[in-house]
Amino acid sequence: QVRLVETGGGSVQPGESLRLACEASGLSFVNYAFKWHRQVPGKAREFVALISSRGGTRDYADSVKGRFTISRDDRRDTVYLQMNSLKPEDTGVYYCNSGDRFRDWGQGTQVTVSS
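The structure corresponding to this sequence follows.
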């Protein structure tokens, strides 16, 4: 059973930073790519970032390029999302996503950016 647990969300002011973590279990971590998505009420879940297995490829939504960095620690079975220069439009619930055909999701962690 794959389990993805996100942590690190919170409430910050515009311009501040947060680092999200996604700890994975129940899968051979090093062999899987991971994605971060986010969702706000009333809107579809949207892609934020991807990191390939072993970290050779990274991809980002245009809205976060240059501000967010996805990384992984294969020794700790954990994927991170470093979010800098946060904006109010970054507010949402952030989800970790992986597994076979990206079918596994975490429960999400809330990020609120507001002055």
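Residues 36 and 96 are 5 Å apart (CA to CA).
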